[in-house]
Each structure stands twice: as structure tokens, then as C-alpha cells.
Amino acid sequence: MKVDIEVHGYKAAEVKGVASRQNLLLSDRLLQRAKVGQGKLRLKEQIEGLKLKVACLLEEKGRAEGRVTRLKKETTHLEEMSSDLKSRIHNFSSERVNLKDTKASLTSNGQRLSKLRGRVFLRKKQLISELLQIYPLELVSQGFNHTLQYCFGWKSNNVSYYLKLG
């Protein structure tokens, strides 16, 4: 069996004898070194690829952390707005209750005022009727104008004295 091996320009052939065995050992070592070198080269390529992936992942992590920070700030801002709105709602509801109470008191005051007006009107009519009993009312005609005047009823030398109240 004859094997021709070529490594870095060297040929090794199977020849009987010690020199050929040394050549074979040398060629095997060279082949082994070449394989190790290729393996190292592949490992270096893999390491470079992994370094690139790590760098990309670190960059992506930084962007994600930035987004998380922004979202946390936005969350705190929204929570502050929510608490502010809740306090405003609470204030509005208490103000609404106060307005309802005020409305109820105004309504009751209006009803009392209406009753008071009615009583004042009735008392006014009563007082007028009493005055009319005391001082008679006469119609004084002056052309087309008719006016009502209260007569105080005293007469002096057959002249009536009138005081116009209307």
C-alpha cells in the first residue's frame, strides 16, 4: 500500500526503513499541526462571531434598559396624574354634596320667602281694608283721568281736604 501525503509542499511516501518512518512521523505531526491550526482558526472565527453576538446583545440590552427606564418614568407620571385626578374627583364629589346642601337650603329659604310674601300681602290687604274703613275712598274725576284718592274725612268750612296716596 502506497500513500502519498503532501503537507506544505512536502510529500511523504511509504518507504521501508527508519528514514521513511521518521518522514511519516514528521508528516503526521505536520498534518496534526495543520489540523490543530485549522481547529484554532475555526475557534477564533467562532470566538469572533460570539464576541459580535455579545456586543449586539449588549447593545440591545442597553436599548431595552432605556425603554424600561422611559416606561418607568411614564408609569410614575401616569400614577401621579391618576392620584391627582382621584383627588380632584373627591373634591368635586364633596363640592357636589355641598352644592346639593346649598340648593336644598336655598329651596327651603325660597319657600319660606314665598310664604312670607303671601302673609305680607294678606296683611297689606288687611291694613288697606282697615284704612278704607277709617278713611273712605273717593273717585275724583279730572277729565279723562280718574284717580283714587283717600279722603281723610275732616271738613273745615265745608271744604274737604284730600291727600293723594296713589
Tally of individual helices: 1
Low-confidence stretches: 150-166
Mean pLDDT: 78
- Give the DSSP E fraction (strand runs of 2 or more residues): 15-25%
The major beta sheet can be summarized as: 3 strands, antiparallel
List keywords for this structure.
two-stranded antiparallel ribbon, 166 residues, disordered C terminus, alpha+beta, rod-shaped
Give an overview of the whole structure:
- This protein is α+β, with helices and mostly antiparallel strands and 166 residues long.
- It folds into two domains: 4-134; 135-166, no CATH class.
- The chain has one helix and five strands.
- The chain has one helix at 18-134; strands at residues 4-7, 10-13, 137-142, 145-156, 159-163.
- The strands form two sheets. It has a three-stranded antiparallel beta sheet with strand order 3-4-5, with no helix packed on it.
- The model is unreliable at 150-166 (pLDDT under 50).
Give the gist of this structure.
With 166 residues, this protein is α+β, with helices and mostly antiparallel strands.
Write the layout of secondary structure elements.
Elements: E1 4-7, E2 10-13, H1 18-134, E3 137-142, E4 145-156, E5 159-163
Antiparallel strand pairs: 1-2, 3-4, 4-5
